[in-house]
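Hey, resending since the last one bounced:
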Amino acid sequence: MGTRLFTAILRQEDDLYVAECPEIGTVSQGYTIEEAVANLKEATELYLAEFPLHQFARPLLTIFEADVYAQAA
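The structure tokens again:
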């Protein structure tokens, strides 16, 4: 058993923060960023207890542009 560093991607939805771990695919939420990350850590640890990690690769992160059209009112 060891410790690994994972990525948490967060977004706000209404009054909750949603946290996702792209390496594993786990998702959780909380009312604060800290709570969302703590819940994501717990969900990820529980997942890895059932499905051990055999290979580990960091996700690639990039940005891109997309045209966005406003809807007519």
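The chain has a mean pLDDT of 92.

Sorry for the duplicate.
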